[in-house]
Amino acid sequence: MTAILTDPPAVEPVTLAAAKRHLRVDGADEDAAILDLIAAARRHVEAATGRALLEQGWRIIRDDLRPAGIVRLEPAPVLSVDAVTLRDLDGTARVLAPADYVVDLPTTRIRVLPEARRSVAGCQVEIDITAGYGTEPAHVPAPLRQAILLLVAHWYAHREAALAPVPEPLTLGVDSLVRPYRLTRVA
Question: By residue range, what is the domain housing residue 80?
């Protein structure tokens, strides 16, 4: 399975003002660097949890379907399934009607119904989703925003490549904040 970001979030889960307060930085000289750190920390937390923090578009691509026709949708939480497209070996695309699949948002799974699965053999399946907690920083759980602030502060203070291991308190702090949000994978 491949997941491709098609529409990045419009804002970050931590504002520049909040990060500057956390860092105790005045003035605008470091704004660009801090904004880059916020974006990097968001991507780090998203990768660690398997979640999209703010609303964003993704395309999930599978080369085939499992016999039951079930596909796990990541990143979570999934807000909507926007399109399911079958692509034949010759590249011809066919968009499935919503009646051809069932979406279970709480479990972040989609099941292509048997009638539609008959026409899926040998096809690549593309599923376009919108994922995230919402459109505003306040929609993101506070522990995940705090993990971002911890990472931003550490990276701001240590701008060079790491020559020593990351301090254990930082590792434990970020890990304890993101652990409850990590997606579990069941084979």
Answer: 56-131
